[in-house]
Amino acid sequence: MKIFPAIDLYEGKAVRLLKGDYEQMTIYSEQPLAVARAFEAAGADCLHLVDLEGARLGTTPNLALVTRLAQETSLFTEIGGGIRSMETLERYLDAGATRLVLGSALVRDPAFCEAAVAAHADNVVAGIGAKDGMVAIEGWREGTSTPAVDLVAELKDRGIHELVYTDIARDGMQTGIDAAAYGRLAQVAGFPITASGGVATLADIYALGELPAGSIDGVITGRAIYEGAFTVEDGIAACEEASARC
What is the pLDDT of residue 165? Predict the structure, then answer.
């Protein structure tokens, strides 16, 4: 199990939202590259990025910054937010991103997702955020009538074998996670998932490690690190210990 320290980008800054609400934004740094380098220095080898403007607009306003983050660190970089065309997907690959997270397009444009998987199966993963069990899209600002569990069940048939799943109600709230819910989703998916949303303490990481082997392969956390609930080093150690239990 890997830890993915998170940097959400907005107007070139490292920020975090509460429950995906753009009106409840905290700016943690105006130098995201310095933040990423600090994660790297602490021993992290993965980085989770979200272009919040891209998620809302379907564009790549932070592309130059993403390029620096990917190319000026040694971090395995995944990026989500606004990837809704092959052109955008190719831009991020050219920028140095390794893993591309498709979100709204899973619902809005299945044909594009199919083409993306056909062209870059090793790089494309699904990103599903849910409110009250229903998929939310467009930067989580718009609800859908699609149950998250139904969309998760379809992923394997679409050629997708990795999922970043976010419990939006807990995202940025530091309320702790519902580990059992992630376990159920992993069973439905038929492959490991990356858990996101609500990681507040090391106990949350250990709880994920108690799930059946192969349920969780990654943990995304942002606010807990930024606000000192635990360090990157402690998060890495917890992931290693949790993995050893499986």
Answer: 93
Structure tokens at 190: 């038929």
Distance CA 218, CA 235 (A): 11
Residue 38 tokens read as 């600090």
Residues 234 and 157: their CA atoms lie apart, in Å, by 37
Q: What are phi and psi of 99, to 5 degrees?
A: -125, 130
Find all residues with CB under 8 Å of 97, minimum gap 6, and list them.
49, 66, 70, 77, 78, 79
DSSP string, the chain: -EEEEEEEEETTEEEEEETTEEEEEEEEES-HHHHHHHHHHTT--EEEEEEHHHHHHSS-TTHHHHHHHHHSS--EEEEESS--SHHHHHHHHHHT-SEEEE-HHHHH-HHHHHHHHHH-TTTEEEEEEEETTEEEETTTTEEEEEEHHHHHHHTGGGT---EEEEEGGGTTT-----HHHHHHHHHHHTS-EEEES---SHHHHHHHHTSPTTSEEEEEESHHHHTTSS-HHHHHHHHHHHHHH-
- For the chain (246 residues), the mean pLDDT of every run of 10, in chain order, is 96 87 90 98 97 89 96 97 94 96 92 96 94 78 84 94 86 76 93 90 94 92 94 96 75
Contact between 138 and 149 (Cβ < 8 Å): no
Say what the pLDDT of residue 246 is.
Answer: 52
Q: Is the four-CA dihedral 77, 79, 84, 88 of positive or negative sign?
A: negative
Residue 59 CB partners (closer than 8 Å, separation 6+): 53, 82
pTM above 0.85, yes or no: yes
